[in-house]
Amino acid sequence: MNVWHKPASDGAPAAGGATSMVRRPASKRRSTRLPPWLVSWFQVGPLALILTVLFALPTTLFLVVSFYDYDRVGIYPAFLLDNYRELLTTPATWRVYVSSLRFALIVWAITLFLGFNVAYFLIFHIRNSITRTIFFLLCAIPFWTSGIIRTIAWIPFLGRNGAFNQILMALGVTSHPLDFLLFSDFAVIVTYVHLFTLLMIGPIANSLSKIDPALLEAARDAGASRWHTMTNVVIPLSKTGITLGSILVFTQVMGDYFVVRQMSGGQSASIVSMLSTEIQAMQYPPASANAMVLVIFVAILVGVMMKVVDVRKELVK
Amino acid sequence: MTSGTIKPRSKGISRRAFLAGTGTAIGSGAITGFPTIWAQNIKDVVLHHAGPPVTAIPAIAEQATKDLGFTVQMQASENADLLNRFLSQSSAIDCADISLVYMRYLIGRNVLQAIPLSKFKYWDQTIPLFTKGEYPDGRKAPQQGITPTMILYATDASGQKVTDGTPTDFVTGIPTVTNGDTLGIRPDLVSRPITSWADVLDPAFKGKAAIQDNPTIGIIDVAMALEARGDITYGNKGNMTKEEIDKTVKTMMDIKQSGQFRSFWTSFDQSVNLMASGEVVIQSMWSPAVAAVRSRGIPCTFQPLKEGYRGWGYTLGAMKHLDGLKLDCFYEYMNWYTSGFEGSFIARQGYYSAQPENVRKYLTPAEYAYWFEGKPAETDILSPFGKIMEKAGKSRDGGSLWERLGNIAVWNSVMDEDRYVTRRWNEFITS
Known about the structure:
By secondary structure, chain A is an all-alpha fold. Chain A has 17 helices and two strands.
C-alpha cells in the first residue's frame, strides 16, 4: 500500500552509491563510483524509455494521423482540420463528454466518501498492524480477478430475473422486477464504485498513516471537536492522498470503454466507445482526432487537480 | 463482420490436438483424396488461412492437413482486426475468408489475385444466387446491399477490377458460406406470433427489445424494421442516401427515447446472454447465437419474417503473393474446402455451404434433412460442439435452404455514405 511513501524516504540522488557506502565506508572505492549525473540518468532512464516508446511516440503518431484524409480503405497524408471540425460539431461528442463527466463526478463523490471512511477506519481505528494488513488484503481481494469479470458478474446479479430482484420480491419490497437495476446509469455507477473505490483507499490511507497521532491528541487537548479535528487537521493533511485518488478515479472513468458499454447495455456511450465504433469502421483519422481531444481534456483535468494540491511538494515532505 | 462471433469454446484443446495432428501428417507424408501434386514436394508447404472465428475453425484445418498432405493453419480474428490483416499484412497469410462486404474494401488494393474458374471443381455445384444472382427457379434475386455478383467476377487474372456482374473466367474468390439473418425471439415470452421486422419496434416489447450496435449491419436491421412499419420506403436499404440516413436515425432516436430498447449488443456472447436471461425477448441475432441459447435448453427461435432476410456471404480468396507450388496447394485446398467437410461443419451452426450438394455426404441423412431440407429431425440434432440443440421431431426455423435464401431482402453492405453512417450511428447510440 505504501507505494507513495517510497520516493519520500529514499529519493536521495545517490541511491546507487548507498549500498557500497554501507559495505565499505572507507573512500577506497570512490574511484569506481559513477558520477551523480549518470546515476540520475540511470534512475530516470527506464521510466523515460517506457514513456517515450509507449506514450510519446504513439501519441505523436495519433496527432499526425488525426490531420490525415481518409476513405474506406486508406488514410492519406494531409493537413486537414475536418476531423476535428466534424468531431467538435457533432452533438454526440458533447453528449458523451457531458455524460462521462457526470459519471466521473458522481463516482468520484461516492468513492471519495467510501474510500476516505474506509481508510480512516483502517488507519485510526485499527490499532493492531496485523489486523490492519488483513483488512487491507480483504479490500484488495476483488482485484485478484480481472476488471472484466468483476464487471460482468454484476449482470446476473442485477438483471430482471437476477438474484437481487428475486431477493427484493421474496422480501415483498416490490411486486415486479425493477428494470432500472441493469442496463442503466445506476448499473454503470455501481460497477464503477465497485471497481475504483480501492484506488481511493490506497493513496488516502497512505496519507493518513503519515499523520502524527500526537497532532490529533493536541487538537483534542486544545478543545477541538471531532468534526473540527477532521476538517482542520485530518483532511488538510490527507489532501495529497485525496488528490491522487481523485486523479486515478477520474482518469479511469474518462478512459473507460468496457463498463459503460456492458452495464448500460449500449444505452449510453463513453468517449472511448465512440472511438471504437470509428475504428471498427476503419476510420482512423477521426478516431485519432477523438483520442487527441480526450488526451488533452484529461491532461487539463489532471493539471487543474495538481494545481489545487501540489502533490509533488506534499510527497517529498 | 457479418454473422459471426461464435466462441470456439474448445479452441485451446483443438489447437493442441491440431498441432499433434500436424506432426503425424507431416511425418507419414500421408496423402489421400487429392493426389495431383507429388507428396514429397508438398509436405513442407504451410498454408495460412485467416478468417473470422465462425469459419476459421481449427478443426477444419486439422482435417485439411490430414486429407491434403500439406499443412493448413487457421488464424481467427474479428471485424476491423481481420480487415486490417488483409490490407496491411497480406503477405503473412495465404488465403482468406472474405465477406462480400470486405471484398468491397480489398478489390483494387493489390491484396488478392483472381482465381481462374478452370481450377475450381465445383463451380457447377455452386448455388446460382452467387454465380448469377438468381434463385434456382430462375427468379432474379433482389439487388440491395452488396450482392455476390457485385464483387465476384474479375475482369482479368490480376483481379483488381470487377465486372458489373457479367460472368468472366476469373473470380475474386470462391463462394463458400452464406446465410440469411433475421430476428431471434423467445417464443415462450413474446406471447404472440412474430411475423414482421416491425415487431422489434412494437411498444408491446418496450424495454425488452435489442438491436446490434454496429453501424454497417445495425442500420440495415433498423431499416428493415422501419420499412416494414411503413415509416420510410428506401431506394436501396444497403446503400442509403443522406436523407434516408438522417430520417432513419431521427426516427430511431425517438424510438430509443421511448425506452423501447433494453440493450444494444456488440458481441456474440452479449446477444446470447441477453436472450438466455430473458432481459430481451426479441432482437437482431445471428444463427449460432440462437443455437447457443437453445443448447442451454432455453427456447429461442430464429424467426422467419415476411419481409425476408438480411443476407451475407463469404468467399475464399487467394493472396497476391501466392505462386508456384504454393498456389497449386491453394487450389487443392480450395477444392477440398468446398468439397463438403467444411460445409458440414458450419452447417451445424446454422450456416449454408455455397455448394450444398457436396455437404450431403458429410452429414447424416437426418442432419441433412433437418439443416438443408427443413424437415423434422429424425434423431436428436447436435451442435458443432456435440451438445443436443434440437430434440428429434422438431424442424428448423425458416424451413429449407431455399425457403430461407430464396427470400433475401437485402445483403450486408458498406454504403457509399459510410462515413456519414458511422457519425450518425454514434449520435444515435449516445442519444
